[in-house]
Amino acid sequence: MAGFFTGTALLLLLFSLSTNATKYQTLIPSSHTLPQPNTNTNTNTLPLSSSSEEEEQLSLTENTLSLSLDLHHLDTLSLPANATPESLFNHRLSRDSARVKTITSLASNRTNTKADFSSSVISGLAQGSGEYFTRIGIGTPARYAYMVLDTGSDVVWIQCSPCRRCYTQSDPIFNPTKSKTFAGVACGTPLCNRLDSPGCNNRNKKCMYQVSYGDGSFTVGEFSTETLTFRKTKVNNIAFGCGHDNEGLFVGAAGLLGLGRGKLSFPNQAGRQFGSKFSYCLVDRSMSAKPSSLVFGNAAVSRVARFTPLVSNPKLDTFYYVGLTGISVGGVRVPGISSSLFQLDNSGNGGVIIDSGTSVTRLTRPAYVALRNAFLSGASHLKRGPNFSLFDACFDLSGKTEVKVPTVVMHFKGADVSLPASNYLIPVDSNGSFCLAFAGTTSGLSIIGNIQQQGFRVVYDLAGSRVGFAPKGCA
Prior knowledge:
By secondary structure, the chain is α+β, with helices and mostly antiparallel strands. 18% of the residues lie in helices and 32% in strands. It contains eight helices and 29 strands. The chain has a six-stranded mixed β-barrel with strand order 3-4-11-5-10-9. The radius of gyration is 23 Å and the shape is globular.
């Protein structure tokens, strides 16, 4: 009988330990600080491809089905004078707010009717031109330049000479007359008509494009085709905008590689070569000097990824919509957060998107309030701190070597994503203040941002119409 009670007590102890493990996880505050300005990674010292490397890349064959690229954060391309960790973080939040405003405006106003060329085509890109960029060869011979990568945009474009107006970029502006593979697109062709609002240059009968952004930035020019080179792989006949009139806060990059879901995005145009698959893994910049990475092709699909189906929005094909069914805090589903709060209606309103360029996850207001209250209840043992910017669940962790914080799990249809503590409790200053990295929105659209995606390999399988999450995917 004593053995029975001893065994029962042991089972209860093990159950208690297991349950507690699902309720809390450890955060070490000193390991998570604001990213420091790195004056050694400005535009003059970021890696450039030499002429010999470029020629070698162009001489290689195209039979590669996969390729991997390093990603650099925007702050390394555009480091403000006298930047501090706090100022960089505040700039990031400012960019974030502008981007979210533009995305929600686009999602709520978009229709599936064509606009004429004189009206603005609003893209998901907002102030700051996305958060990540990579180096890509343009034309033949390839001229290498930094390109912003953005899952919230479709059209690929670069600045071209001659410039009517061009902003300052870190590389020489692309001259299409020096490329053997540059070709304009004729007006009225099927390719020209794939633009939302095609225009026509009456002088040479060439197709014109324009893209406007929510912060007033824009790019206008000739719609063309060109060869892009990614390390050792060439991709031919990519339709892109050759922008002769470009203005705005594009911050040093030569242009943009649209990774959206629309028909003119790079993944869809290069679908045959890369199987319509790509993935990225974004590192926590406060924890690792290792660069983030972007992978195209079969190697992009992690074997351990958990997948959720993509949801189609008939009014807007750019964004990656997914089905969010709930959120757990401390091992318990939060009451009041259900799939009904995230439904995409027949008019194209509402829903949840995954976005590489938004930092802080936005949840429709009722869902956010329920999440915040559940987290505050589970973290009642932590000292509260003052609100900061858009954050209203903050804590004073100064002097703490480690703390226990409630676990957070996002439940997507078919995939439960358990977040590391550093993906939802983040430093907001250098004095030990940490805040819950979620925010509410009065818009019906919820956005899963890149802070929550850090450390996961996020897989975009357009062929399979699904998105996957693989933990610890940056190795």
